[in-house]
Amino acid sequence: MNVKYEVQGNVAIVTIDRPEALNALNLDVLTELEQAAVKAEQDKDVYVVIITGAGRAFVAGADIAQMKDLTADEGRAFGEFGNRVFSKIESLTKPVIAAINGFALGGGCELASACDIRIAGEKAKFGQPEVGLGITPGFGGTQRLPRIVGLSKAKELIFTGDIIGAEEALNIGLVSKVVPGEELMAAALEMAGKIGAHAQVAVRQSKAAINKGMQCDISTGLAFEAQAFGLCFSTEDQTDAMTAFVNKEKVTSFKNK
């Protein structure tokens, strides 16, 4: 197995465990990542997913040895497969946190970009160095990175192939938090706990509205938001929480329905 899947409370932890290859993405790893995503989606007791890497890398990229002799058609198929897996991760109804413990290069940066929230260890490194290998980013880097860091910065990183550290990644908005490496998983679990403590229907509807809104004009996005907002008023959690608020009380747990 190249991908470990474990559940702690309401959090699924997905660990890419191919440290001898710096967790490089080959067909087997991508297949197991897809299976882990499906498993997390189907588990009603999982509220948040954390993706991380074993050893000194998050994911150092796609597996060059497996890619080097691909034909144009085979290269396209490999890119389409990787994009399918990352789109599945991006579209999970549950929030996904990337806990980036080291190199997140090429496909690793693209995997992190497909997650909802990115937390980096202070020694993490990011980049899309594909042009140095004669290829473009192939697992969504040309599409997600500009949406996260802006058009100019994304083009700079992709055209130059530059590798940046965690602090610069924080400064450009690629990650939302940088912590000491030994505190990374604790920080990710703490954030997952905060998310999991809230009404999950509301959390998931918020994610859906954000993701849909990022792909359309603002008027259409606002219509999605209104729909999500209205749906929440059909839940027991909304009734319980607002009633408690009006009564100057506090809901201590949610039914998630």
What does this 3D model show about the protein?
With 257 residues, the protein is α/β, with parallel strands linked by helices. It is built from eleven helices and ten strands. It has helices at 27-42, 64-67, 72-90, 107-114, 141-149, 151-160, 166-171, 184-196, 200-213, 218-232, 236-246, and strands spanning 3-8, 11-16, 48-53, 57-59, 96-100, 103-105, 117-121, 125-127, 163-165, 177-179. The strands form two sheets. The protein has a six-stranded mixed sheet with strand order 1-2-3-5-7-10, sandwiched between helices. Strands 4-6-8-9 form a four-stranded mixed sheet. α1 links the parallel β2 (11-16) and β3. The longest helix is centred in the N-terminal third of the chain and has 19 residues, at 72-90. It is globular. The chain starts with a strand and ends in an 11-residue tail after the last helix.
